[in-house]
Amino acid sequence: MRADTGSVPRSDYRSGRAAEDLHLPRVSVVIPTFNKYEYTRRCLESLRELVYPDIEIIVVDNASIDGTPDKIGVEFPSVRVLRNPTNQGYAAACNAGIHATAGPYILLLNNDTRVLDPFMIQTLVDEMEGDPQLAATGPILVDYDTLQAGDSRRFVRPGHGFAEAPGSCLFVRRSALERVGLFDESFFAYYEDLDLFARLRKVGYRMRQSRRTKIAHAGGATAGQNSPFAFYYQNRGFLVFARRHIPFGELMGRVLLERIWLAVWSMKQLAKNRERGQLSAWASGYWDGLIWLLREDAH
Would the pLDDT of 154 be above 60? Predict the structure, then answer.
């Protein structure tokens, strides 16, 4: 039986046996949104194709001005919508959704994703159930339009190797979050996933990307991949993350040189293209990140 979008009652699953007999755990799907309703609509439509007997879906809206919460209420009445009075950021929206759910597993889903595999949830549950030390996993990301797999290097973050699991479709174990805490909301957006992975790794958990399922992802559709917002929070987030989790010697060596080279190259490109807003955001992100570091060190 295909899952209806929203809180889905237990029902027959694949073999026709009662779901209660299978003891399948509830999965809580949390989708942060900020405008871009068309992506959200397609995401929710695709979730209807999932084959899994017990799914609850919660959308956490960060004060959209395009009517996203009301439109969801009309088109997807079984989806629970939480409304933040202001844009509190991706990390805070995820945390609010996690607090509002009860399932032992949580799927944190960007609204610019689209489910391709009806058995994706079951596959990710199987991965978790088979490895108690696995705290987070997620599917392979493919291009939203072409459905071609992206270059795995897109998961590389400077100074810390691979991101182990895709933050845009992150399947996490609630008990692991209860042990290390939820997302750090000081990141607002970007690098909150790597910060969580670092904390999980320190207490012995593992993270890995599943190679058995996939999902389509537009990438940067909500924030804008080359927007001033993205430039600002990526740069600020890197400095905050690096200060907490990258050894000082490494940070001052290879990683810092890499970031300086990347910053100089990017600023030249931005200046050449007369993209003053992006250039200002890039510099402001680094500056505010440095201010944050100084305040942290002072404490």
Answer: no
